[in-house]
Write a structure and sequence with these properties.
It is built from ten helices and eight strands. By secondary structure, it is α/β, with parallel strands linked by helices. The longest helix has 15 residues.
Length: 219
């Protein structure tokens, strides 16, 4: 975790688990109870209950499954974030398509992980999410379809470097150190990248870059 976002993140993180598979939800809440800095505050199993419980319990982080009764995790996330924009949502999916990634990112969630991934990765993502970082698992950055070159925005070599570090889940402070630039300069690059890609968040920018092949193309 970056030292520039670590302050204020020491309090125990409250988590709402949203999943309609009872066994998975019970296993995850059990795992959370073993972590000294994390605590589960409730479980929801559909869109309506997730929105209701999030409003009532005000969790720091929501772990949201994509497939839910009464809709899906994208629908639930959009409603939660309209009511409580500061909520950090980590979405899990067993259907890692580019369409799902982009739809999820457009809502303002902060992380997108495969549901069959490791528990250690999920726990670390939850911890980092509380403190403002974003993450998308490399396995979910699918090989993009070929697009005409005119549809791909022109990014400078430095912007591409920042973009690819963003895709690795690094925060602004870490990226600045890796590139030997100031955090303010790095934030300026992030702002420009978002504008060029028509994105509203770093995760949405990474999703768009994956679709356009900017994460794999040579600088």
């Amino acid at each position: 975790m970056d030292t520039d976002i670590a302050e204020g993140c020491a309090a125990r993180t409250s988590i709402l688990v949203v999943d309609d598979h009872t066994t998975f939800a019970e296993l995850l809440t059990g795992a959370l109870s073993q972590e000294p800095d994390l605590r589960s505050v409730g479980v929801a199993d559909d869109v309506e209950s997730s929105v209701r419980l999030c409003a009532a319990l005000r969790p720091d982080v929501v772990v949201m499954d994509y497939h839910l009764s009464g809709g899906n995790g994208v629908t639930a996330s959009a409603r939660i974030l309209r009511e409580r924009p500061g909520t950090r949502i980590v979405m899990l999916t067993g259907d890692p398509t580019q369409h799902v990634l982009e739809a999820a990112a457009s809502t303002g969630i902060c992380a997108f992980l495969p549901k069959d991934g490791s528990l250690a990765t999920l726990l670390e993502t939850i911890r980092n999410a509380r403190c403002g970082t974003m993450a998308v698992h490399p396995s979910l950055l699918a090989a993009p379809a070929r697009r005409p070159a005119t549809e791909v925005p022109a990014l400078t070599q430095r912007e591409l470097q920042v973009l690819r570090l963003m895709a690795e889940g690094h925060g602004v402070g870490a990226n600045a150190r890796l590139l030997n630039i100031t955090p303010n300069t790095c934030r300026g690059y992030v702002k420009t990248i978002l504008a060029k890609l028509g994105a509203h968040s770093q995760l949405e920018a990474v999703a768009a870059a994956s679709r356009l092949g900017l994460l794999t193309a040579r600088s």
